[in-house]
Amino acid sequence: MTRKEFLKTFGIGTSVLLCASQAYGFLSKGTKTAKSIKGHIFKNDAPPQPWKWSIEGFHYATDGTKVQCQICPNRCILSPGDRSICRSKVNIGGKLYTLAYGNPCAIHVDPIEKKPLNHFYPGTPVLSIATAGCNFRCLNCQNWEISQRKPEEVHSSELFPEAVVEALFPPV
Ligand code: SF4
């Protein structure tokens, strides 16, 4: 079995198990025992309503009021009206919404060597799509102008995943 096949087979299964167990943990133990990095949540910073791009997140747990995002190890716990560490997720009315979906602020064709990949199709171009915000706070970030901004603070394009696929693979 190749490395790629191994990751495909076991990586997805492990992720599903981890998400399920973490969601169960949050719901069964309540927010007092769920682990989350504290101090970087933007309190009361969510827009009053989801905006036109917003969709409800897929990977989060809720007790009906607070939500806990299950996407990255920050495990943000958001009360209604709060914004996440990565600036792009908000709790509106007890649901987790992403403000970045279909809303990229950077679209480039890059050489694949710029990506954190090792000898993966060297010499080929790769499409880069970035949205505002980031779950890190690296002091040497070369993309700080978009990584440390909220989606509402940057110039964005309306570009949904279906349109990207259609542009790359036009129907024949
Ligand atoms: S930083 Fe963003 S992606 Fe990570 S847990 Fe918080 S809301 Fe989710």
Helix content: 10-25%
Structural class by secondary-structure content: alpha+beta
Order of helices and strands: HEEEEEEEEHH
Number of structural units classed as domains: 2
Shape: globular
Strand content: 15-25%
Number of helices: 3
Give me the Rg, rounded: 18 Å
Q: How many strands, what sense, and barrel or not for the largest sheet?
A: 3 strands, antiparallel
Structural overview:
The radius of gyration is 18 Å and the shape is globular. It contains 3 helices and 8 strands. The chain is 23% helix and 17% strand. The protein folds into 2 domains: 3-98, no CATH class; 106-168, no CATH class. A 3-stranded antiparallel beta sheet has the order 1-6-5, with no helix packed on it. A 3-stranded antiparallel beta sheet has the order 2-3-4, covered by helices on one side. Strands 7-8 form a two-stranded antiparallel ribbon. The two termini are 34 Å apart. The chain has helices at residues 3-29, 144-147, 161-168, and strands spanning 55-56, 60-62, 67-69, 77-78, 89-92, 95-98, 106-111, 125-130. The chain is an alpha+beta fold and 172 residues long. The structure holds iron/sulfur cluster. The site of iron/sulfur cluster has 11 residues, from loops. Residues 69, 71-72, 74-76, 84-86, 89, 135 line the site of iron/sulfur cluster.
TL;DR of this structure?
This protein has 172 residues and is an alpha+beta fold.
